[in-house]
What we know:
Blueprint (H helix, E strand, L loop, with lengths): L14 E10 L6 E11 L4 E5 L6 H9 L6 E6 L6 E3 L11 H11 L4 H14 L15 H13 L5 E5 L7 H18 L2 E6 L2 H7 L2 E5 L6 E6 L11 H20 L3
Parallel strand pairs: 3-7, 3-8, 5-6, 6-7
Antiparallel strand pairs: 1-2, 1-4, 8-9
The chain binds adenosine-5'-diphosphate and magnesium ion.
Amino acid sequence: MTPTTTTPRGVTGSVALRGVTKVYGQGGNAVLALDRVSLDVTPGEFVCLVGASGCGKSTLLNLVAGLDRASGGAIELGDGVNPGLMFQEPALFPWLTVEANVEVPLKLRGLPRAERRARVAELLRTVHLADFGRRRPHQLSGGMRQRVALARTLALDTPVLLMDEPFGALDAMTRDILHDELERIWSERGLTVLFVTHNVREAARLADRIILLSSRPGRIIWSTRVDVPRPRRIDSPEIATIAAEVTDRLRTEVGRHGQ
Ligand code: ADP
Ligand code: MG
């Protein structure tokens, strides 16, 4: 046993990928979706993952979420954290009220009823849906449904949020509002966020760091820090400049593949 520790491990909220490879299928039908992807996300960091359609963004997120297994390499989550995952579709239970939807993870965690009630109320306040607890999902707008999904994910009390194009189906105005809300919740709770989008402006608006994946197989080909002070505006010149640079890189990459 060596008494010296070189790397601090098990830091809550950290996400580390070490040479992660994913192959779907076998033999002649095998598809290399991710090729030796290494990435360190520090606790509290907001990282946006950008890349062309089919480059492996969802694959990467699903591996981190533990929904699927990597073919090679390793994924380390600080303190064995179980991340929360959010998709473009809010995937709410249509027969349950908003309150009951948010309560599901709390029930699964075995919280007593009174505590669940208090937590649900607090979470609905957090996403500005305090007055909508008794509604059902079909009575809400798309943006409101995504807020419910966010509240339900926050109910997991996990420090790591994985988001796969969560606002991709929303109109620009609604998305803009949800960016502000997500940023507020992220900073208040000190969350670590890994956010997938193909919208470069959205990435520049939200990220501390933008990571660009190549077309299949997905490899990290470029990354940049976004040092624009918060709060940010998606239509500000600083964000536009960064978005333009990412778009250029993305174009070059897609062009290289003759798509
Ligand atoms: P993205 O989210 O960036 O659009 P995905 O991660 O969904 O990309 O997919 C990456 C590649 O892996 C694509 O070529 C896709 O067709 C392939 N793929 C994804 N899931 C599967 C699967 N379950 N079986 C076979 N191929 C898959
Ligand atoms: Mg995807």
